[in-house]
Specification:
Layout (H helix, E strand, L loop, with lengths): L2 E3 L7 E3 L17 E8 L10 E4 L5 E3 L5 E7 L2 E8 L6 E7 L4 E3 L1 E3 L30 E5 H5 L6 H8 L3 E2 L16 E2 L7 E5 L2 E2 L30 E7 L4 H4 L6 E7 L5 E9 L8 E11 L4 E11 L2 E2 L27 E6 L11 E7 L23 E3 L13 E3 L2 E9 L1
Parallel strand pairs: 1-9, 3-9, 3-10, 14-17
Antiparallel strand pairs: 2-10, 3-6, 4-5, 4-7, 7-8, 11-16, 12-13, 14-15, 16-17, 18-19, 19-20, 20-26, 21-25, 22-23, 23-24
Length: 416
């Protein structure tokens, strides 16, 4: 089978090498043409997940963990080979493939931020469209300047403000997810979004979401707020499913956070605020230091965040379970007085000859303890110390919840 190497380049560096050793006069049968090779960065490191395609055809392949790709069953002809990968400048080169030939084409991609075309799309929203039309996938890239303009140091809130497809929901009940709050992408579960730090997978939290308020019950996402915003150079958001490339945790998309590498100097930032009611005071402090030399560079940042509490009963909107619906509506049936639902074979109040289903609760002030027993009459279940359970008996749990949960957070990040 004939084989050769290719070294013509346009936009990216390419080099091909195929070594064929033939012993004797063995005759090889003709086979379909193939294009194979490896995609690397300028340092020779493999670029995993890059897409290599032939322009004008449906032939394409994705590189594996070693950066290798293979496109089989390629018809003979002259092609433009295109390569794309998140965080790298796209490029292309020319190649000619003869019938039954295997061509090895090694490609080198140059790291570069993705340049986005300034376009405005009217979609019924004031959010600016940030995806470049020429990209093979919808990728949003947010720079350090955009991050600094958001007025908060919470990375998840920053991403929600910048990316229209990202949501950072608050729970309507108080539990651990008020502190380790996950984000959602394209309305899917938090664990359906892959989070990368400089291209490396970020672990999920140990907090399991048990309340399906804005996120899937049983899911566990990544706490983006554990990454100091002052350490971020840019954020890349792939707003498309990438499970075929990254696995099932990338069904919603991929968020890749690139940290600073060329910061030189000292930076101090603080944000403080509160509510007109005098509560919910918040403080954010962050300090960053970077140095560069001939033999290397280092970067360090530290951040401290303090959030004071806001109690649900301190706001009219959150005093009742359902605002404006009246007492008891939407409340819990698990009340302090207890709710008792049972079939009493001793009673037949409706006279149908069958035992009655009783649904009652203790009267306010009634006691049922070791010294006094509540009075219950099977022929009159709603008499004595009990009455029929109704909407007004439902428990309003709002006064016992936080509207904003108090928390303290310290973040440290270093890179050398």
């Amino acid at each position: 089978m004939p084989a050769r190497s290719v070294s013509r380049v346009r936009g990216i560096h390419a080099a091909g090498a195929v070594l064929v050793a033939m012993f004797g006069a063995a005759r090889l049968d003709a086979q379909a043409s193939r294009l194979t090779g490896r995609v690397t960065d300028p340092d020779g490191a493999a670029v995993a997940g890059a897409t290599v395609s032939l322009r004008g055809t449906v032939l394409r392949a994705a590189t594996g963990s070693q950066g290798r790709y293979t496109i089989s069953n390629v018809p003979a002809g002259h092609y433009t080979v295109m390569a794309r990968a998140i965080g790298f400048a796209p490029g292309e080169t020319e190649v000619t493939i003869a019938a039954g030939e295997t061509v090895t084409l090694d490609l080198t991609l140059t790291r570069a931020p993705i340049e986005l075309a300034p376009i405005n799309v009217v979609v019924g929203s004031r959010a600016r469209h940030t995806a470049a039309e020429e990209l093979a996938v919808p990728v949003d890239v947010f720079t350090a300047d955009q991050i600094a303009q958001q007025g908060t140091t919470e990375t998840s809130q920053i991403l929600q403000a910048l990316a229209p497809s990202v949501n950072f929901p608050r729970q309507s009940v108080t539990d651990a997810t008020d502190i380790a709050r996950p984000f959602t992408l394209r309305g899917l579960s938090p664990d359906h979004t892959l989070v990368l730090i400089n291209g490396w997978r970020r672990h999920q939290t140990a907090v399991l979401n048990t309340f399906a308020y804005g996120m899937g019950a049983g899911s566990s996402g990544v706490d983006l707020n554990s990454i100091p915003s002052g350490a971020i150079e840019r954020i890349e958001v792939l707003r498309d499913g990438a499970s075929a490339q990254y696995g099932s945790d990338a069904i919603a998309g991929v968020v890749n956070i690139i940290t600073r590498t060329d910061f030189d100097g000292f930076q101090l930032e603080t944000n403080q605020g509160g509510f007109d009611e005098g509560d919910g005071y918040s403080q954010d402090y962050s300090v960053a230091f970077g140095a560069q030399g001939e033999r290397g560079r280092a970067f360090f940042t530290a951040a401290y965040t303090r959030q004071d509490a806001v109690f649900a009963p301190d706001r009219e909107l959150s005093r009742e379970v359902v605002f404006g619906a009246g007492p008891g509506v939407g409340g819990s049936s698990g009340t302090p007085q207890g709710r008792f639902i049972f079939l009493d074979p001793r009673g037949d109040v409706d006279g149908d000859g069958e035992p009655d289903v009783v649904d009652i609760t203790l009267d306010t002030g009634a006691v049922n303890d070791a010294t006094r027993t509540a009075i219950y009459d099977p022929n009159n279940p709603t008499g004595g110390d009990f009455h029929a359970f109704g909407t007004l008996d439902r428990f309003n749990f709002r006064p016992y919840n936080y509207l904003v949960t108090p928390n303290r957070r310290v973040n440290l990040f270093g890179k050398a």
